[in-house]
Specification:
The complex is a heterodimer of chains A (about 220) and B (about 375).
Chain A (H helix, E strand, L loop, with lengths): L3 H11 L5 E4 L9 E4 L4 H10 L7 E10 L2 E13 L2 E13 L2 E10 L4 E9 L8 E3 L8 H12 L2 E3 L34 H26 L1
Parallel strand pairs in A: 2-7, 8-9
Antiparallel strand pairs in A: 1-2, 3-6, 4-5, 6-7
Chain B lengths: L2 H6 L14 E5 L11 E7 L2 E8 L7 H7 L6 H5 L6 H16 L5 H30 L4 H21 L8 E2 L2 E2 L7 H23 L3 H7 L7 H6 L5 H4 L7 H4 L20 H24 L21 E9 L2 E9 L7 E5 L1 H5 L3 H5 L4 H11 L3 H5 L1
Antiparallel strand pairs in B: 1-2, 2-3, 4-5, 6-7, 7-8
Helix pairs in contact in B: 4-5, 5-6, 5-12, 5-15, 6-7, 7-12
Classes of the chains: A alpha/beta (about 220), B alpha+beta (about 375).
């Protein structure tokens, strides 16, 4: 089994333009991961699967991770002029690292019997740019798992053959595995026809009143 | 009516008016063959399946979110409820993931106890899977009751060990929860001695059975290439002839000390899945005999291991075992606090259903029930 550095080097020689970097795992498990830019995701995945030495033909686990915006504070010394005197003032500056959603794939090789190689992709942000390439065309095992990530995290997989909700019901709107998810007060609330009818009746009444007043004015 | 008149009779010809029209049937969520609440939306042309879409989520309770809000140890009893047939192996998979994350050593004695409980779990799971498969084939009662008779003995042993028959909650990070009761190993040995007779009995009843062969051979065929690509694991993968058993590949625990073979199928049909399960039970009996011979004395849990205030260092780990249904994995990310930042279960039951449609297309409706039964799933794990 190659180490993560060697795999990175192999990717760099085969696909020199792909943006891949190694992220160290500080835990004792020693499972380091490769972070791939979304636009190069498919090419790198096909290389990992078809390379005869790596032969990562088995995508065991696919999952999502939600990383919130990180706020770090830093103390900065600055000189300012206060009442005509120069003083050194300590200021705290806030930095906000934007959060992102991440899809994580654990790859093994059934032919060579080694693994895991961890493959990650990150979205640009958590709100509107949440698209990542789907790995289902490369490994069929991602089909249901990517549907689950879409359902629970809200990552939209481009190229997935059948991207629908899988565990939550189709009408559900939020993504419950996000870190900032707030449960609704009442899961079973539905706007009843009664409410809608009432609203329409009020609108109708208002129109009627307007018409009446207009008629009175003209008389 | 004379014979001549009878011969000349022809049934009236009805012009097919709805040719090519498909019938859509929702099998489930309360179909008796679905082992719980699971739906298959099937499109039929006559009796032949054209399309099949599985629908999940009826038992969804977002196990992962609950685990992320609880401490590491608090999720251990909850893993019992994933695949409620195999709580011991679920516990072990979770324990292995946490042990990888935090770098915890497991004492020798605990390793042996883990292997014994896991192999007993495998035997009772495979026995009941075969029983349920036959139940769906119409062999109402007998095979399932034979399997449950044996399962009952194993569950009694688990109850004596852990206090609960199915929800064992027995493993801990770095070992096991309680010391073995008095004479427990002797009782297990007595049960293990009776198991080959039970497997012989099941085989005498089923293996050469003409009806079983007619219903299962060449039905629900899965090709090895697709099986590997679709991430199928467990007996279903090995029935296609792919030699991949995580006990042999990862050699987790102390599986490198035991001699056992990995049974492989040839055709990837339902009969091969049945046969692989039977042979795996025989191999498990072999492992149990070897393990029971030399259980060492010593502690059952690492005494240095903190039970309260368990906070692994930041990082992540993926741990997996060969569960009775396939690869059961846990993926954990720690941010240094008392509860996991990310907790993920890799459910073999859900992922083995990926190819259900591929196996069922072109078959009769009656064979869909069998094909589905041969996958061996538990809905508690599919929906989580």
């Amino acid at each position: 089994m190659k180490t993560a550095e060697e795999i990175l080097a192999a990717i760099k020689t085969a696909l020199p333009e792909a943006k891949v970097e190694l992220v160290q795992n500080p835990s004792v498990s020693g499972q380091h991961s490769l972070v791939v830019a979304p636009e190069d995701g498919l090419a790198v995945a096909v290389f990992l699967r078809d390379d005869s030495e790596l032969a990562l033909d088995f995508c065991s686990n696919a999952t999502g991770v939600d990383w919130l915006d990180k706020e770090t504070t830093e103390k900065v010394k600055a000189t300012e002029v206060v009442d005509g005197e120069e003083k050194v003032i300590e200021k705290t500056v806030k930095h906000i690292q934007p959060g992102y959603l991440e899809s994580v794939y654990h790859l093994y090789s059934m032919r060579q019997k080694h693994g895991p190689v961890i493959f990650r992709m990150r979205t640009a942000n958590r709100t509107d740019q949440v698209e990542l390439p789907s790995m289902t065309p490369v490994w069929r095992s991602c089909e249901f798992q990517e549907r689950e990530i879409f359902d629970l995290f809200g990552i939209v997989f481009k190229g997935h053959p059948d991207l629908r909700r899988i565990l939550m019901w189709d009408e559900f709107e939020d993504h419950p595995m996000r870190r900032d998810y707030v449960d609704p007060d009442d899961y079973e609330y539905e706007p009843t026809p009664h409410d809608e009818v009432l609203k329409r009746a009020q609108e109708h009444q208002a129109q009627q009143n307007e018409a009446k007043q207009a008629a009175e004015v003209t008389q | 009516m004379s014979t001549a008149a009878f011969k000349s009779y022809r049934p009236p010809v009805i012009e097919p008016s709805n040719e090519g029209e498909l019938l859509e049937v929702a099998m489930g969520p309360h179909h008796p063959s679905t082992h719980g609440v699971f739906r298959m939306d099937v499109a039929l042309d006559g009796e032949i399946v054209i399309k099949l879409k599985p629908v999940f989520g009826y038992l969804h309770r977002n196990h992962e979110k609950i685990a992320e809000k609880a401490s590491y140890l608090a999720s251990m009893p909850y893993t019992d409820r994933l695949d409620y047939f195999c709580s011991m192996t679920n516990n072990w998979a979770y324990a292995i993931a946490v042990e990888k994350l935090a770098g915890i050593e497991v004492p020798e004695r605990a390793q042996y106890i883990r292997v014994i409980t896991a192999e007993l779990t495998r035997i009772q799971n495979h026995a009941s899977a075969i029983g349920f498969l036959l139940q769906e084939m119409g062999a109402s009662g007998t095979p399932l009751m034979y399997a449950f008779r044996e399962r009952e003995k194993i569950l009694d042993i688990f109850e004596e060990l852990s206090g609960s028959r199915m929800m064992c909650n027995y493993m801990r990070f770095g070992g096991c929860r309680v010391e073995l009761p008095k004479d427990w190993l002797e009782k297990v040995a007595a049960i293990v001695d009776g198991l080959p007779r039970f497997i012989d009995e099941i085989e005498a009843l089923l293996t050469g059975n003409e009806i079983l062969m007619a219903r299962t051979q060449g039905v629900g065929v899965l090709k090895p290439d697709l099986a590997v690509n679709a991430g199928i694991t467990g007996p279903m993968l090995r029935a296609t002839g792919v030699n991949y058993d995580i006990r042999k590949v990862d050699r987790y625990g102390i599986y490198d000390r035991f001699e056992f073979r990995v049974p492989l199928g040839d055709h990837g049909d339902i009969y091969d899945r049945y046969m692989v399960r039977v042979l795996e039970m025989r191999e498990s009996v072999g492992i149990l005999r070897q393990a029971l011979k030399d259980v060492p004395a010593g502690p059952i849990v690492d005494p240095k291991q903190k039970v309260r205030g368990f906070r692994p260092k930041p990082g992540e780990a993926y741990g997996r075992i060969e569960g009775p249904k396939g690869e059961l994995g846990f993926y954990l990310i720690s941010d240094g606090s008392g509860n996991p930042y990310r907790y993920r279960v890799r459910p073999p039951s859900l992922i083995n259903l990926t190819v259900l449609e591929d196996m069922c297309i072109g078959q009769n409706v009656a064979d869909v029930v069998l094909t589905f039964g041969s996958v061996d799933i538990v809905l508690g794990e599919v929906d989580r």
